[in-house]
């Protein structure tokens, strides 16, 4: 990364590349401590990731507050730096050594900001992984590989709920549920059940309907579920959909898969529309693209479906073996995108240690 030799070349370092993820069963609504109100299920992406390098040195004047700097793509980002400062401070209980070190983060994304990819998931998971790697270097910590990733997932959760799922590849769940054993609200878990061949290689074409920052943040959206008249029904719906989707992934059937995934996408936006105050993140072109997807699927009988994050942009999900058949649809959908931008991604294997 820029500035490595000039600024930090003499320091110890660790580095991780961590991907974003897109939820199929949505996490929407949380309890204090960043715990989810319902289980969620996501796919980890491959091409949408954050690379973070953490350089560190012993502080000459240790204090209760860790001294650090954070550069994003070579520049200071005061807003995100402030968030990271609060996050790092919250981790002193888990990483007591932090107060003895100066930390220098350099981070960059493989994707532009505000394009419907959860940058907090990839950023916070990469930072959590770096801190866990640092712990192994500077302390007597001897975690197994399973324990390492479990701790990284829990640490990522404390910064961003969805980030805990980015610590694993493939299909990942988070939150206690009846469909899987040994699951927890504290950390995510890689889904270990058998997966039907039609779901093993999924592509994700990200339609950039709007590339401006959201008017309402996800944190604000979560908070608006407190006292929401339909909140309990939503949590029950998500839990039921989670169980259904786990079974569908084992049994096969893309039509059933599409039904659950699309219901989940529209459900969280319905919660936004009926919150107090209400708000709408879906744009007119979002609805036009959804209509086109449904009409095209009905006409051509090709397995394809959509999901949305907490924003206007669409994730078009389809099996890799259907890529040639779906390509004409993607070309048509470019008409609804900003400058025709579609980011091509797929299910990935999870984080990668850089050094």
What would you note in describing this structure?
The protein is an alpha+beta fold. 36% of the residues lie in helices and 24% in strands. Strands 1, 4, 5, 6, 7, 8, 9 and 14 form an 8-stranded mixed beta sheet that branches. A hairpin with a 5-residue loop joins strand 11 (305-308) and strand 12 (314-319). Helix 3 crosses helix 4. The longest helix has 21 residues, at 231-251. 45% of the residues are buried.
Outline of this structure?
The protein is of the alpha+beta class and 355 residues long. It has nine helices and 14 strands. Strand 5 (67-72) and strand 6 (75-76) form a beta hairpin.
Keywords:
disordered N terminus; 24% strand; 14 strands; Ribosomal Protein S5, domain 2; alpha+beta; 4-stranded antiparallel sheet; Alpha-Beta Plaits; 355 residues; 9 helices
Write the layout of secondary structure elements.
Elements: H1 4-8, E1 12-25, E2 30-31, E3 35-36, E4 40-58, E5 67-72, E6 75-76, H2 78-90, E7 101-109, H3 119-138, H4 145-159, E8 171-174, E9 188-190, E10 202-207, H5 218-223, H6 231-251, H7 254-273, H8 284-300, E11 305-308, E12 314-319, H9 323-333, E13 342-346, E14 352-353
Parallel strand pairs: 5-7
Antiparallel strand pairs: 1-4, 1-14, 2-3, 4-7, 4-8, 5-6, 8-9, 10-12, 10-13, 11-12
Helix pairs in contact: 3-4, 6-7
